[in-house]
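Q: Fold this one first, please.
A: Sequence and structure below.
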Amino acid sequence: MLFETLIAEKVTFHFSRVFNSEITPDQLVFQPTRKEFAGDITLVVFGMSKISGKSPEVTGQMLGEALMSETDLVSDFNVIKGFLNISICNDQWIKQLNSDYNPVTLDETGTPNQSRSPVLVEYSSPNTNKPLHLGHIRNNLLGYSVSEILKATGNNVMKVNIVNDRGIHICKSMLAWKKFGNEETPESTGMKGDHLVGKYYVLFDAKYKDQIKELKATGYSDEEAEKNAPLMLEAQEMLQKWEAGDLETLSLWSTMNQWVYAGFDVTYRKLGVDFDKIYYESETYLLGKSIVEEGLSKGILYKKADGSVWVNLQSEGLDEKLLLRADGTSVYMTQDLGTAVMRHNEFKFDKLIYVVGNEQDYHFKVLFLILKKLGYEWADRLFHLSYNMVDLPSGKMKSREGTVVDADELIDNMIVEAEKLTVELGKLEDFNSQEAHELFNMLGLGALKYFLLRVDPEKRMLFNPNESIDFNGNTGPFIQYTHARIQSVLRKAASLPGLKNYRAFDLPGYTGILPKEKELVKVLVRYREALEDAADKLAPSILANYAYELARAFNQFYHEHPIIDPDKATTSEFRLVLCDQCARVIAQSMKMMGIDVPQRM
């Protein structure tokens, strides 16, 4: 909390002088002053009264009177029960604005320290049997934003992706295409490659269910029908052929994966996310198998009678976990063991953050524990950034039933909706067609990204596209429009004679700060605190809601005070400084979320 350290130093000094008793800074409890009371920072006095020998109210009153001697720091105080509300001098706020929020300092935000061991952030992690959907969008935006926030706080960040390009689910798409595809390709159908392959994943599920139904009609149980359906047996045989290196199977696998990768790249470009390195499960699972074999030889893992390999974690409060199937094929856990070891060998990372949905919470508990049991000391540096599901007004999404919200379609629809609303509200200021197109893209993506990132990752969320595109309220377009409004004011100021260069950011002696100006300054100077808090908690939602709070504070200030007053040059220059810094901080905050802001609307 801003000024907490400085106030703590003064409180401990005056407490000793007034009460003839010692108190240490770690015994002090501060909190923001509640909006219904005057003050900027509140000291909780209840616990201090035992040391002072006075009631909380008297302790607070005596401390407040003593702090008033710090005339360059404290301007006023009040005591409400056991709470000492302290008002900070206006000069201190302006000094803070001058020292920490000048243009040079802000422009340096986001410079990572390359000498530090890297922090790896894994996100996206798509399967090559289906296109990206709404859940993937939340994953990608969260991973990208966390990476940018960590960079901005001085971390050396590597953005990595692991593509799940092998396994039974991939074979399902391959088999369905082989049996029912009639040699169609992305070129022959005009479909994106990931959409084409996803079509056959859905088709496999439909045909498989038909076969299960037929087997059950002949007397099979549910479990027997699922295991003995001809399509499932063929898919399992295809997986065994893949792992055995069958050339025909590998050729089909390579061809269909290339279709998917080309489709993924289009979606990633639309979203504005990128990666420093991409790993492929097909290249890491063998290392995972060798790690399993090593653990088996050391007696850490064990083999069942059918030849499958397991780890027993019951003593750790978990259960037994399969690591290799009886037929020798690997599972997800096998691949993740190999990938983790490969990454540490390559980067000697300080931390590895997995951005994966909370349905995999148990998986990562097991993964980290297995690595620790196998003797990898760096297992303690692994972290699962778990996020909750995204629901729609229509309910939950299911990939294999084809009921997901396709990422490309959603992005395109958001841009169309942004265009409709922008035209309807008349917010196109002499834009040509290219400029208008860029603005619609900026607003549509801004609405989508902000809406998904403003919610704490741990919370389940309902995505409502109509609610996200709104120029009022806690939305991306509201913040983007605020930035454009500020830029309009700054352009007007630049055309007026007589105003000093407010971007020089030198405001000595300005003392006439008004309540709405001070409220805006108080929000402005919390930017670094919000950024560091977001980095510490790996929560872009903290920065998103800070950006909204700043935009709202600016609009309240803007509606109450004229920015440019021809008769008050110093006041105008100060308010232009506030405008300039608000625009810069809004732009920086939104940049951390991968959101662009317009210069005009």
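Q: Good. Now the second chain.
A: Here it is, same layout.
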Amino acid sequence: MEQAGVDQRQVATFDLGALRRFADLVVTALGEVREEIDALNVYPVPDGDTGTNLYLTVESAQGAMRRRLAEERAGAPDSHGDSHGDSHGDSSREGDLLRAALQSYARGALLGARGNSGVILSQLVGALFRRMGQAGPGDRSAAVLAEGLVAAADAAYAAVGEPVEGTILSVARAAADAATDAARDPEARMGHVLHAAVEGAHTALARTPEQLDLLRRAGVVDAGGRGLCVVLEAAERAVTGHRAMSEHTGFAPHVIPVPTAPTGDLTEDGPAYEVMYLLDAREDAIPALRAALAGLGDSLVVVGGEGLWNVHVHVDDVGAALEAGIQAGHPRRIQVTHFAEQVEGAREKRRLDRRTGRAVVAVVAGPGLAELFEAAGAQVIHGGPGRRPSTGDVLDAIRTTGGQEVIVLPNDSDTVPVAEAAVHEAGEQGIRAVVIPTRAQVQGIAALAVHEPGRGFDADVVQMTSAARSARHGAVTIAARDAMTMAGPCSVGDALGVVMGDFAVVGRSLDEVALQVLQRLLAGGGELVTLVRGRDCGELAEQCEQFVTREHPSVDVVVHDGGQERYPLLLAVE
């Protein structure tokens, strides 16, 4: 069992539970960034579907694994079977289940692979899981993982007709190289290797615009490579419980970009159709198939094995691509996409995104908070206790943004009605504005963390509202007068703890009260604690951070310098 305070990356191993966690986490993670990755998609064709294709690929893999495990358990012997509780039998059974799960996940990814990046991802997963399934009891898990990532990168390069650097292939190779370096340490565990792979992948992703001119002109990184980074992050979290935190912005994990380069010239010289199909064929028929398809078009990827293959190619002659499949074996589940229609749809979405002119207005209570919100692109109004803005102040800020769509974050209960009045007046002036009723600064942080201008306005408001509502918030302060609170009487100078807007704790020490507030917020579970230092915070934030690290090692902590008055510390749990 893991002990509190021990770095989870030093004790992490891979088992059936970790695989199931990975299968769930990667679907959730790719679902969250699907729109972002779709928007990054300018290579090889700007059809805006890479994120969706990757998501559908891992969703298919997850479903296949779940079905296989259900079948295996349905056929397992009951407590009166042959094993009679024998530990060796239980261990062997778990090993069999893990191998079955690995095989079914890889096959599900192969069967459900969509698009160029989805097919490559299925090949990466297949090669990695094949090596992991071959591991023996004496093998170091860290070494097996590194070897599997190398095999995955090799297989992906081999599957692509003409490998191009600056793509998911480059990111896969960099992750494998970093994992190999980490695994050379005899003390390294699987968590260390995964962490190194994630870091290597992110470094390679940042280099993709330098390697592929099309990405540089568009001002984006490679979409498939971004997706692979998300997959590796999910794997690290499944094994270690640690969630990689983004360093791209103050608190936003991702944004939906709008590529700056014109996209009209990106497919004029390329093939008109994307052709995909599953192929039942012998392995010795595949070289001839590759040769035939390579002569017809580009973006050729053929992955699979053991009689089942997933074929992807861009061509002008759809009939010839299908004929090549028929000569090699039995093609099925045939999909043909006309790029002109798909690219025009993606281009129109980008034009609408540029026309939207969406902005965010936030009322903030301290200079550090102002810097934080401004760094994320918000128009800031200075407010807080004793200096709350007027309706006119909020309306002026809405107008100043120049946006046709404006989201207002009041971040204070008393400012909510003021913001609503300003939004009503803005509507009369032709500006579409909405108030998300954030009643605490930390709720505003949570909302802005998921704000994505490339998303539809209504969907963006829903996501931000949901994030704000899910952030359980608290604060600590000093009583300015004798009063009766929901936690009992307080005297001037007492430490007060606020939980979800109500005074819930009365004590003599800010340290003691802050920890009680934090414990109450964490009682409902959580994955991320946000601490915002006030002007007179002292060591409160550090003490709370140490408490979370010690008592809740799987929960991440982010500390911001807010500089707010009256409240030495603001807290939130998401």
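Q: Anything worth noting on the second one?
A: DSSP finds 19 helices and 16 strands in the chain.
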